[in-house]
What we know:
By secondary structure, the protein is α+β, with helices and mostly antiparallel strands. Helix content is 26%, strand content 24%.
Amino acid sequence: MPELPEVETVVRIVRPEVVGRTIEGVRVPWERTLGGRSRAAFGRAVRGSRISAVWRRAKFLVFDLERGGAVHGWLVAHLRMTGRFFVEPDDGPLDPYARLVLGLDDGRRLVFCDVRKFGRVTYEEDLEERLGDLGPEPLHDEFTSELFVRALRRKRRMLKPLLLDQGFVAGLGNIYVDEALHAARLHPERSADSVPPAAAHALYDAIRKTLAAAIEREGSSFDRFYRTPEGRPGSYQHQFRVYGRDGQPCRRCGGRIAKIVVGQRGTHLCRRCQRAPRRRA
DNA sequence: AGCTACTCCTGGTAGC
DNA sequence: TGCTACCAGGAGTAGC
Length: 281
């Protein structure tokens, strides 16, 4: 599933292909991709716009749209489970799972594909309204370990759902939460306020290192879904310590990796490295 | 505040 | 082989 590292990879590859291009044509094979706006309204808002920047916030891709030299709105995209972006010549057959196609002024098209139809590409006039509830970017300098340790101490929630909460820290998903918790030797069901400062710092480091290493390897690909916009798989899946490794030995202690359910999410851990929290009465 | 359950979707797969 | 039932899962929402 695309998480922060995968989205960052998509942004880096798509950006040089589309920045400076003007959107000339808009095709919407699956209208719900637009998040409630009609094809017609979306087309009016977007057609004729020049893409002046492409950037990432959490797991969102953002395209700045300008007309007459001024930004008038943004395309905000979320890949969810199976969403993909790529740029290709605007001829030849369209991918059967194409949900939105933006024809560019250089004869190519920016295509959003999504097998499961969960992904969204919305037009926004108010970015704050759409992205304002997101927590800090885990790789930014403003996200300090002191800030994180203090925030953890204030939460009486299990670590796993807390780290998946985009309002707490933005950009983590199921894979990287499991990996980071294992790296920090913390049990996913442990309550945040029970984590001692030293372990909280270790978790902070684990989150940052895991994400940075995954970006370096262009994200993780283990099913046929996530690919870079150039069609390459990422390679961070070869570094997984727990995710998808249930039944196999822990690379750190040799214990057996288990798969449990925490907050309706499949969760991978080594019970030997990540000691169970004391059960609350 | 924080938990569970449900919804959206489809392809893959386990079980028969 | 061919069928059905179930699963994965990010995030929004509702209900407790």
